[in-house]
Amino acid sequence: MAEHKTDSVMVASHIVLLTRVFDKSQGDVLELGTGYFSTLLLHWLATVAKRRVVSYETQKHWYERARRWQSEFHDIVFCRNLDEADFDQRHWGMVFIDHGPNSRRPTDIRRLADKCDYMVIHDTPPEWDDRYGYSAIWPLFKYRYDYAGMFPPTTVVSNFKDLSDIP
After folding, report:
1. What is the dihedral angle through the alpha carbons of 111, 118, 58, 136, rounded to the nearest 10 degrees?
2. Does the bond joining 101 to the residue before it have cis omega, within 30 degrees of 0?
3. Is residue 165 part of a domain?
4. Are 46 and 71 spatial neighbours (Cβ–Cβ below 8 Å)?
5. Which one has a higher pLDDT value, 39 or 1?
6. Bridge partners, residue 155, by sequence
7. Domain total for the chain?
8. Mean pLDDT, the chain, as a whole number?
């Protein structure tokens, strides 16, 4: 594998793993943080598969961009304070973590660790642990697979599904 510089970030490096895990999962999908690539991809995958996606966004400008994808199978929710959101009151087939601020991610990962079959987490290179604090959440999971085919890497974790068939 080629070495990557941390200042040489590829856009949408999470798409390969996000698509793979969507195909393996069943049930509703939760997206924390909307974006140009993941939100549209999840929208179309859910529409074709007739599965529900719920996307939460805390930043107004990203919400305004994403809300055009509101549909029968896709809910776009603006929530300024995720502490007030109740997404941890149910079980999800898949959760995608890619929201801001960076320091918020471990909080929501903890909330959802036992509330989903699969959790896909973007931006997981070890050298970025000071940005995201992921080293504190890895022990919460029984299974882990790191996809480093593109930079920055993306990781899938689970407490319910063996990930040996992800690659």
Report:
1. 50
2. yes
3. no
4. no
5. 39
6. 121, 146
7. 1
8. 93
